[in-house]
Amino acid sequence: MKEYVVIFEWAGSNYSVYVPDLPGCISTGKTLEETENNIKEAIQLYIDTFREDGRAIPEPSFKAKAISVAA
After folding, report:
1. Ranges for the HicB-like antitoxin of toxin-antitoxin system domain (predicted)?
2. What CATH architecture applies to the domain 1-71?
């Protein structure tokens, strides 16, 4: 099992999400939950395509952490 960082962004009327370690692996959704489910499916399809093509699956390299600051 691999764990990839995903980045969620509010796009004004929906969420978009991408995976920095998997170029071109993106998705959208109306809610965070829907968007998360959609990107999980997109990641699996991305990995399946790499396997079918005989390419090495990119290793996770990005790390993320929320940092709280007074604003």
Report:
1. 7-61
2. 2-Layer Sandwich (3.30)
